[in-house]
Structure prediction request, 431 residues.
Amino acid sequence: MNAIERYFGINGENTTIKTEVLAGITTFLTMAYIIFVNPNVLADAGMDKGAVFVATCLAAAIGCFIMGIYARLPVALAPGMGLNAFFTYGVVLGMGYTWQTALGAVFLSGCIFVLLSLFKIREIIINAIPTCLKQGVVAGIGAFLAFIAMQTSGVIVNNDATLVSLGDMTTFSPAMAALGFIVIIGLSYKKVPGAVTIGILLVALISLLTGHTEFTGIISAPPAIAPTLMQLDIAGAFDVGMISVIFAFLFVDLFDTAGTLIATTTQAGLVGKDGKIPNMGKALLADSTATVAGTLLGTSSTTSYIESGAGIAAGGRTGLVAVVVGILFLLSIFFAPLASMIPGYATAGAIFYVAVLMMATLKDIDWHDLTESAPVVVVLLFTPLTYSIADGIALGFITYTAVKVLGGKFTEISVPVWLLTAVLLAKIVFI
Prediction:
């Protein structure tokens, strides 16, 4: 125990091992929904659900262990929401690539992220991208998630005249999706630990009791991971059409991670007087390494989770919190039968809930400056309507540069933004 206290600096952070363990359990409960949601989402891409379940748990555990032991921060990781949806519905189903090629694209984005972290280029990129575009991308992904959740659960359906319309809310699937969403929102407002997981399991239980789901057990040996292990197609990811896809995976992962680290470490009181986050470089390296490891196992981008704030609110202050979360993810691989009984409509409410949280970035937009707000609206609307995070980002950058030029605000356009705009414009026009 003394060795653990010394390594993680527990006494120096005015906490205890017991507090750190409880904080880790709290964080795990708030993000455990990913072990149900991620397999459902990636299964739509044609991936083996059982293998993805194991890959999800292992990738999350690896990310948490690296973050906790190497970066020593109370931040947990797991395959990211939004990026998994883009992987399935944007790249595989939308663009027609195989899931193996999509994994290859995630792998390349993770490798680039590793290099950016090692050579300390990440801060330059983060600072160069306009704040409004960062916020717009987050909100756009939120809208994309909401659209997917409503579509897959039957809340909205195809309509030949209007493209989409409201589904029959009296049928089981959309009704259960709505119930799950309402329960999650209510419990989250009351700050109930594990609100999202409770909502998912409640809907799954109702589905089981009403005969819509067959009982297959709770605990068993882990499913085989062979169907996804080392199945990525890196060569296929070098296709010219994948450039914007790789950039989208990298861009979203980079800023999502940076934003999460800033928010959680500030909440924990770990940010120094100079405004710097302790071990920021190690944390970003942990995140990018976890993404690379996750693709080898068979899952989309692994990233830092804002839900880590729940554990911090419970008193967590050191990397021991992340280690505890990692251990719990490892133990979760024995609950594959439970995960297999979770229908898509049971996770739709959770996905919509995440979308609500992501929309919160819109409150910080300067709506009085049209050169700031217009690009945000473009990203917000075009991401779900084109069914592509990559296209949403591209159109947002092009709009930002165009309106700033026409508005005479040349000095607000950084060199990296000029370069990215040129590349993205060329991609849309010529590819």
